Write the structure tokens for this entry.
Amino acid sequence: MKDCLFCKIVQKEIPTEVLLENDFFIAFNDINPKAPIHVLVIPKKHFQDISDIDGDVIAKFPEFVKTLSDKLGVTDNGYRIITNKGKDAGQIIFHLHFHLLAGKNLGDLI
Ligand code: 5GP
Ligand code: ZN
């Protein structure tokens, strides 16, 4: 989608170190990490938020995360995945993205 920052990352118009990529998703480091490991996983296709995504794309998400967590070396110790939708959640980028947080004890907020 025009003027979408994350679409530009998908299209490689904004140079970003890609950690993992397949036909459906791309993973890269968050620019402002909130944990020792803070990776963003985004669908290549533009969806505004979690309420907007196609079932056939989200069906591919668990396999991608498994490969990613193995690559990051966090499968055993674990990780947290968060997605923000809308104002009260603090969503600032309106291209669906999942925050994968890991590398320390993440506490008990959730
Ligand atoms: P949310 O929309 O879920 O609140 O968060 C958007 C996230 O995108 C934030 O954690 C922010 O640090 C990250 N972010 C914003 N702009 C960029 C960017 O240009 N590159 C990367 N890698 N991350 C970004
Ligand atoms: Zn987009």
